[in-house]
Amino acid sequence: MNKKLKLTLLGAIVLGAFLAKDNVKSLAATNAYENGIFYDENKKPANWWYDDGKAWYFFKNGKKLTGEGIDSNGKHQFKNGKYLQGYLNNLFYADGNLANWWYDDGKAWY
Q: What is the pTM of this model?
């Protein structure tokens, strides 16, 4: 191969890698917060489980859900986008479900 062709191919490879890097970066940045609302890849307020870059959260209308919600595992109680754990109004929740079974908190059975 002559020197001019080698330089042209090298330039094309470098440019292709640069463009590919930018495309991946822009795809990763499609889910984002704007004015306190989390938007999905379609630029709509998120309404499901999404990774906001820190952790997975359950969103409703772009906000981390607090209250009752339904996901693929059924109906659950959520607090700040996570399954509710612990007490709420003197009722105990584990993994977002009202506990109606024996539960060991590490200190005692309830």
A: 0.62
Total domains present in the chain? 2
Residues 38 and 70 in one domain: yes
Those residues with Cβ within 8 angstroms of residue 77's Cβ, 6 or more apart along the chain or in another chain: 67, 68, 69, 83, 84, 88, 93, 96, 97, 98
Give the other-Cβ count within 10 Å of 45's Cβ.
15
Same structural domain, 77 and 104: yes
Q: For residues 16 and 33, what is the distance between their CA atoms, to the nearest angstrom?
A: 30
Domain interval for residue 110: 33-110
51 and 20 assigned to the same domain: no
Predicted confidence (pLDDT) per residue in 58-103, tens digit: 999 999 999 999 999 899 999 999 999 888 888 889 889 888 888 8
